[in-house]
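Incident review: delayed structure delivery

Summary: a single-chain prediction request sat in the queue longer than the usual turnaround. Root cause was a stuck worker, restarted by the on-call engineer. No data loss occurred. The affected request and its eventual output are reproduced below so the record is complete for anyone auditing the incident later.

Affected input:
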Amino acid sequence: MRLHKIYCSKKNKTASVTRSLISKEQSKDTLVCQLESISTLQATNGITSLLTVKTAKNELCTLEKHKEDILQHKVDSLLFVEYTTNKSDGDESKLSINKLQTIPSFYDLSYLNKLFNEAEEVSDLIRLLQFIDRLHDQRIKQLLIELFQDPKVAIPFITMPASHKHHHSYPGGLLSHSIECAEWVESTAYSALETCEAELTLVAALLHDLGKIETMNTHNSRQLVPHETLSLLLVEPVILKMQKKWEQGADTLRAMLSFSISSDKFPNFPGCLLVKMADQFSTSVSARKIAFEDTPDYFYFSKLQTSTSTQFFSRLTVH
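Output delivered after worker restart:
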């Protein structure tokens, strides 16, 4: 999804979109913005909420939402808005809100706008930001905030596929797979582990394939290095910062990102098994979906052929 350019007045002026800039009766667009103020109008047909928002270009726009009171959104909060531009009889066009979500505010508006503009699947990017925001341990949360503050890490992570033909093999697939793993581990880890260990496990689940931002580049010699090794190398700069305040936490995360399931022994940190199971489950679900992609609904058996193996899958066809 790409953000559509919105034409608004400069700061301290009323927002407008000239009719000459509108090519259709209605156009659906998206916007990352900061909420400046909210007002409401009571009419016979219900409540209309008017939101004045500031864009990444420091422009003010007015958005409206009919028959719904949205005063629960706080002034100065960051929003992702899906809106429709409706032509009016005058020179102005109305921007009507279809959907809006609050975005965690640990990045500035300009950088968020860049991320949303690049993201292949905006909903997954929002899931990522909300996941980081849910973390309780500030040391761990800060590690992820700083990691994704670097666009050389963040942008390929939210745009690249997770594989060429095996699983999540579409633009944005790496983020989709990674956040799936992190959320599934999140649903289990807290019940069995102390908060700090649980959240280091969540980070390992989220970042276990980070090295693919290097290896998935077909013109990159780093394909010679396993992506698991590159994941740790990419995270190491922010782990070093954590180490200054929490050495054991830093080494624990290194151990988790280095863990291999090839051994028949239990890992030092049981959460590593959660990460591996989440990885395998997410991969298997995606691969099965690809295997059955072009088959009739009544097929209960299919296979997925890749360059290195043949995977066989079954599914229920009678419920």
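Verification: Strands lie at 9-10, 26-43, 46-54, 59-66, 78-86, 94-103, 301-305, 310-314.
Action items: add queue-age alerting; document worker restart procedure.
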